[in-house]
């Protein structure tokens, strides 16, 4: 865009004696740019995404972990570019026995273009990355896009001596079939020393501000988790660790992340804040370029209409100038 602007400015200064040629050249240049932009935006917004079933692919890597390991929990990231870059700088030397769990709201809304931006960011990660769905992930047709990119809404996996169940409670409820499924999954994990539940919204008995599971679902879930001797529940919200509760739980999200360590001594967790990268000029410029790309992809209809409007005004202005010259002659 900067190059085109300077090209038009200097071109007009040095080629104004060839006004007709210059007008045709600029019109073709601008027209080509906007046609390319519109078709590229349509491609980004509607051409099916190539990545599929990421959760299953990463589960296979995670299930090779034996014995002691650690993993990271994040939430409400909304494909935030600075968050992911800052997070990567915090774990610059990750262990091979590590992975990341995002507890939902990985995108602002679930249309295809936003999932493409998220997948673009995920190419930076060297660790296996799993996603538990949140309500934003399902907006604007997100059910289908989430299923394409990540796979099943509810799933299980294991790592070392720990068995994980991830559930979809994005509508702040858990139905009876889902409760039965959770019970069945934990019952099948009797050989594992630790049992961990992942979900987006915390239960009402978890001391957190914001949206909770409804009271009925929370009470039934609490009873179920006690009967299955679940060792840890992780969800999003205001960052807290309650290791001494009847059902230990961890709440994390926003600009912080949790590191959970699982070994023969038990499960331990700590919450850390992410360092700011705004002082790094190269990082700021890289983030700015991706922000611009994000705006182009998300708001392409409005930007496209503005561009077409500018092009039409350009033609009208040139037509007016030529008409005035003819009248004077």
TrEMBL record:
<keyword id="KW-0812">Transmembrane</keyword>
<dbReference type="GO" id="GO:0016787">
    <property type="term" value="F:hydrolase activity"/>
</dbReference>
<dbReference type="InterPro" id="IPR051918">
    <property type="entry name" value="STPP_CPPED1"/>
</dbReference>
<feature type="transmembrane region" description="Helical">
    <location>
        <begin position="290"/>
        <end position="317"/>
    </location>
</feature>
<protein>
    <recommendedName>
        <fullName>Calcineurin-like phosphoesterase domain-containing protein</fullName>
    </recommendedName>
</protein>
<keyword id="KW-0472">Membrane</keyword>
<keyword id="KW-1133">Transmembrane helix</keyword>
<dbReference type="InterPro" id="IPR029052">
    <property type="entry name" value="Metallo-depent_PP-like"/>
</dbReference>
<feature type="transmembrane region" description="Helical">
    <location>
        <begin position="21"/>
        <end position="43"/>
    </location>
</feature>
């Amino acid at each position: 865009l900067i190059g085109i602007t300077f090209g038009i400015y200097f071109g007009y200064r040095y080629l104004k004696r060839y006004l007709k040629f210059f007008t045709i050249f600029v019109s073709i240049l601008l027209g080509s740019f906007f046609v390319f932009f519109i078709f590229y935006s349509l491609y980004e917004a509607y051409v099916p995404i190539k990545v599929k079933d990421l959760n299953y692919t990463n589960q296979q890597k995670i299930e090779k972990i034996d014995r002691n390991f650690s993993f990271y929990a994040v939430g409400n990231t909304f494909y935030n570019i600075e968050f992911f870059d800052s997070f990567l700088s915090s774990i610059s030397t990750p262990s091979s026995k590590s992975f990341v769990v995002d507890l939902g709201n990985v995108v602002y809304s679930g249309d295809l273009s936003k999932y493409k931006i998220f997948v673009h960011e995920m190419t930076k990660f060297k660790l296996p990355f799993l996603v538990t769905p949140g309500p934003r992930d399902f907006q604007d047709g997100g059910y289908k896009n989430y299923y394409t990119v990540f796979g099943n809404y509810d799933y299980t996996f294991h790592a070392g001596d720990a068995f994980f169940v991830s559930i979809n409670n994005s509508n702040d409820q858990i139905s009876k079939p889902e409760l039965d499924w959770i019970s069945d999954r934990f019952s099948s994990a009797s050989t594992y020393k630790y049992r961990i539940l992942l979900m987006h919204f915390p239960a009402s008995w978890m001391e957190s501000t914001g949206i909770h599971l409804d009271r009925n679902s929370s009470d039934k879930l609490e009873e179920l988790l006690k009967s299955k001797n679940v060792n840890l529940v992780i969800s999003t919200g205001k960052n807290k660790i309650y290791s001494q509760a009847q059902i230990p739980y961890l709440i994390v999200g926003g600009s912080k992340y949790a590191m959970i360590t699982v070994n023969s001594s038990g499960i331990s967790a700590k919450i850390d804040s992410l360092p700011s990268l705004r002082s790094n000029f190269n990082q700021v410029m890289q983030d700015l370029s991706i922000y611009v790309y994000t705006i182009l992809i998300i708001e392409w209809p409005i930007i496209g209409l503005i561009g077409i409007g500018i092009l039409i005004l350009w033609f009208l202005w040139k037509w007016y100038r030529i008409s005035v010259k003819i009248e004077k002659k």
